[in-house]
């Protein structure tokens, strides 16, 4: 007896002009005109987060149809990765080309939630470009990976070091999935043990 396949839902392509038109294509810095490149993207049911080459984070609220802008204090550097999380508070983690990691705790209109924008900087682990970020489901842990193979956790301690660039991180149930240019592995955060997925290195 043949099984019934679930129906496929087709959606119309939408170029998101309402979002792109809210982000400038150029900015003026002194006498120079600088082109703005979009460098990182993450989405969830509430927000669309877009990182840029000028160090500006553009955060579009889908419910209010509003665009907000957030930046790092100090020098302007390219954002290389953004990661959203919706739990008790809405959080967005941002990584840059120089290895800076920051967490923005967003304002919420709900009672008992955060009423003021807060930014937390995570310093001391990375000296090179952030290539991956992963939240634990409850927002208590943030893992960051860079292009030199270092993986850190939000309390600024090195948890693992790989010989090649980190390309993806994901975390669930005390297990961190790590993908590098050479291999994929499972890092058990309680036992501090590593289990490689597969035996052959990537080509």
UniProtKB/TrEMBL annotation:
<dbReference type="InterPro" id="IPR001680">
    <property type="entry name" value="WD40_rpt"/>
</dbReference>
<dbReference type="Pfam" id="PF12894">
    <property type="entry name" value="ANAPC4_WD40"/>
</dbReference>
<dbReference type="GO" id="GO:0032527">
    <property type="term" value="P:protein exit from endoplasmic reticulum"/>
</dbReference>
<dbReference type="InterPro" id="IPR036322">
    <property type="entry name" value="WD40_repeat_dom_sf"/>
</dbReference>
<dbReference type="InterPro" id="IPR015943">
    <property type="entry name" value="WD40/YVTN_repeat-like_dom_sf"/>
</dbReference>
<feature type="domain" description="Anaphase-promoting complex subunit 4-like WD40">
    <location>
        <begin position="90"/>
        <end position="156"/>
    </location>
</feature>
<dbReference type="GO" id="GO:0005737">
    <property type="term" value="C:cytoplasm"/>
</dbReference>
<protein>
    <submittedName>
        <fullName>TCPR2 protein</fullName>
    </submittedName>
</protein>
<dbReference type="InterPro" id="IPR024977">
    <property type="entry name" value="Apc4-like_WD40_dom"/>
</dbReference>
